[in-house]
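Translate sequence into structure tokens.
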Amino acid sequence: MSEKRILLGNEAIARGAYEAGVKVSAAYPGTPSTEISEAIAKYDEVYAEWSPNEKVAAEVAIGASIAGARSMCCMKHVGVNVAADPLFTAAYTGVGGGMVVVAADDPGMYSSQNEQDSRMVARAAMIPVLEPSDSAEAKEFTKRAFELSERYDTPMMVRSTTRLSHSQGIVDLEERTEREVLPYERNIAKYVMMPGNAIKRHVFVEERMKKMAEDACTLDINRTEYRDLSVGFITSGIPYQYVREAMPDASVLKLGLVHPLPRKLIEEFASKVDKLYIFEELEPVIEEQVKSWGIQKAVGKEIFTVQGEYSAAMLRERVLGRECSMEAAAQVPARPPILCPGCPHRSVYSVLNRLKIHAAGDIGCYTLGAVAPLSVVDSTICMGSSISTLHGMEKARGKEYIRNWVAVIGDSTFMHTGINSLMNMVYNQSCGTVVILDNSTTGMTGHQDHAATGKTLKGETVPAIDITRLCRSLGIEHVYEISAFDLDGLTEAFRRETQRDAVSVIITKAPCVLLKGVTFPDKCVPIPEKCKKCGACLRPGCPALTRNADGTISIDETMCNGCGLCEKLCKFDAIETRRKA
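Result follows.
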């Protein structure tokens, strides 16, 4: 008998993989995909790992598949870019055991640097895509993806979005289907993608996609819901929910397989409705294909935006002409993100700011060093880009130009793609200072471990990569570790190393204040009678500090983590650190 449970979309995807008999799961944490791996790691039957990056995760899944096991790799949309190299070729090799790539897109850019549509990448790679619309479908579509993977000899993509990944729904839990690992069969023509073999596999891929498109017309995850034939919608994923909410009487063609598209099914549906709308978030992936078939009455991005997240309100406004009130939204105060009280990054950035040093930034919590009052980070492109960006600046403008520049990168991001960039600086005889902000975790996505923390996704204790020794092994002579809260030491190190005609690395060490097990025994307490109202303690922007009406400062003891940064900045002893009672 099945059990009903309320699950996040991400948890439901993990459950679907578990029930499908997955043996191996690999991922790099990235919002909104992270919880998939955290959920699947709880199943003892599944080997699950945090890989150093998405490319490695995809290759682990490919290897497991070739060995005959069902496998999965999970990532956010920008992680698909990192994994693209192996994924494009895996489309040619096909699979042994079923292989599923979960891509979590982020319409609205709630936690991302761009708003790309993974369906576009899947089309280019010739990888089929399933798109669930709720938690129940997230589980079922994941299971179906493994079946289709093996039936058509292809990796499959399950596409989620932030709204699906992080919303909850009722899911029927079923037993795991234990599946025998397929016997390995050596097949050079299939798995060794040298040009002669790849040319033949490309023919196979084209025929496979053609066959899937034909079969999709009768696939039960693509379904028509005929109601009022005066208006019809072609939609998929979370936007389907908005259509049902805003226009419950409309006819709907709900696509579960969004690539390749079921042309005959779409043409039949279009012929039966008077008005036809294509309602899809982000890019016009479905719309462009439908219109290319001559279905010109279809209306899509003419009225629906390619930007941001959709809603039922948008649908009512654009189709029904009902103006949506924005008064409530306008009254909500802005809540810009900010570094936590006691964050070690704030201490480092406060020194860089005082020294008027610019930073080429990277992806992580420390990106917030770009905003006032710290205002240090001048660029953020992608994972691992800070080091290469600094290198490019030096090669374009010369050594003197970067005397007041550093690259900043977190420990997890350094392990992700920063190592190659640092290697490149050494190899190509660059100079510049790289600051590795080591807070002992992958902080931005919720405190996941990585190769330098000494813990695996399964919670096993393993040897931790020593970042200092790793940097020195690249031939870098000047590598220094320093406490993130040693303001004098940081000041001296930044002044010295930015003037050096060589590559140097400064590793600032202090754990994330929200990391489990990290305790703070002290609190910072203001002494108003000593305060000179200079505001020096307020400059780093710690949210625990506020200025009173008389110019003195208050410290919220419920927020203060006792890092002591404000105390060190005060020259008048108007703040002291006290042990908590």
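Note: The chain has a mean pLDDT of 93.
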